[in-house]
Design goal:
Layout lengths: L2 H20 L8 E4 L4 H4 L15 E4 L8 H11 L3 E2 L2 E2 L1 E4 L7 E3 L6 E2 L1 E4 L1 H9 L7 H4 L4 H8 L2 E5 L3 H8 L5 H27 L3 H22 L11 H5 L6 H13 L6 H18 L10 E5 L2 E5 L1 H9 L14 H4 L3 H6 L1 H4 L17
Parallel strand pairs: 2-8
Antiparallel strand pairs: 1-2, 1-9, 3-4, 5-6, 5-7, 10-11
Helix pairs in contact: 1-3, 8-9, 8-12, 8-13, 9-11, 9-12, 11-12
């Protein structure tokens, strides 16, 4: 059984009856869901996933005036929920080897894996804001946090706020999407061009690194063109990529072939073919004219892919406040600190002044 299915049954059959009987003062005015981090939220959990943070678990959301009942809810659930549910432990303890995670307990020692919060607190902690005040503020929200917010499942929403927020954050606003798309194209050619140059010099590590970076940037573009959030956790990149409706089945084998080949001299041409597929799809979406293409230039005996013209055409179509900005990317497109992107969402806000002076930073390229 998948973790999401298990947690849904756990709420319906075990948690909900206890709330109705022992915390009747909240009535039906709460929401229950499985969101945020975890392979089970994405449906990617398997046997290897069950060693930590996997099992019957749930998030409960209360309206702000009812959060005063949080302690009572947790007390009643810890007292009355069964020690096991469908053969899986319901109590968790902190892992002694890794105190940042919880592991299932073999007996009644520990606490149930239920979090009680409000929509405003959850949003502030997970994405850094409740509702962005501007499109520039959207650039400070990590894509992976939005993925966790909008995936998983809401089991019950008795007051509607959680459902409304998830609908609101289903994907980036149009101009934010275009801005991220323009930066993704702008950055794409940087490392593809280095593969052949490094390979001919025998710099295998540098060449392979450039293959990896280029493949990731192409995959990120495929997510953008599918209007789907891209996971930050690399472990799930492959599986989420092949779930996409468009381009993944054509481009995926090209990228896999680029990793498998021993002849690095062949890789740039293959990656440029993948880029051509991106351009063709984008033109079909109406984001580019039918005549749009990647310019290929010769330099030092190598063919280079110049993607800047594609980025510029997308940038020119942006309207509103983002139009004045140089294309420096959203924060998570250039901040590479994993811990900061996952656990330091609030700190990312301190970087937002980079967007205050639109002409201070020149476009990369």
């Amino acid at each position: 059984m998948k973790g999401l299915e298990l947690s849904k049954a756990y709420f319906s059959e075990a948690i909900r009856p206890i709330l109705a009987e022992r915390v009747a003062e909240i009535g039906q005015s709460y929401a229950a869901a499985l969101l945020g981090w975890g392979s089970d939220v994405l449906g990617n959990d398997d046997e290897l996933s069950r060693d930590h943070e996997w099992g019957p678990r749930c998030l409960l959301f209360l309206p702000d005036p009812l959060i005063r009942h949080k302690a009572k809810i947790l007390n009643e659930l810890n007292r009355h929920l069964p020690v096991e549910f469908r053969g899986h432990p319901t109590r968790f303890v902190t892992d002694q080897e890794n105190p940042t995670v919880r592991v299932p307990a073999s007996d009644s020692v520990g606490q149930v894996h239920v979090e009680v919060t409000t929509c405003s607190d959850y949003l502030t902690q997970s994405i850094g804001t409740v509702v962005p005040e501007s499109e520039v503020e959207w650039l400070t929200i990590p894509e992976s946090s939005l993925l966790g917010l909008t995936r998983g499942e809401v089991f019950w929403d008795g007051f509607g706020d959680l459902t409304r927020y998830r609908r609101y954050y289903q994907y980036f606003p149009l101009n934010v999407w275009k801005y991220r798309l323009a930066y993704a194209w702008q950055a794409l050619g940087w490392d593809i061009d280095l593969i052949g140059l490094c390979a001919v010099r025998g710099d295998v590590l540098s060449a392979r690194h450039s293959v990896s970076v280029s493949a990731y940037r192409i995959m990120a573009l495929v997510f953008l063109l599918n209007r789907r959030y891209c996971p930050l956790y690399v472990k799930w990149l492959h599986r989420e990529f092949y779930k996409l409706d468009h381009l993944s089945s054509e481009i995926g084998p090209i990228l896999e072939g680029a990793f498998r080949t021993d002849d690095l001299a062949l890789v740039p041409e293959r990656l440029r073919a993948a880029c051509d597929l991106l351009v063709e799809h984008q033109a079909r979406m109406g984001l580019l004219p039918d005549s749009a293409h990647i310019r290929h230039k010769s330099y030092r005996g190598f063919v280079y892919a110049d993607c800047q013209a594609i980025a510029d055409q997308i940038k020119d179509s942006i309207e509103g406040e983002l139009k004045a900005l140089t294309v420096d990317g959203a924060l998570d497109q250039w901040v590479g600190n994993y811990d900061l992107l996952v656990r330091g969402v609030g700190k990312l806000k301190s970087l937002s002044p980079v967007y205050d002076s639109p002409h201070k930073y020149s476009s990369a390229g």
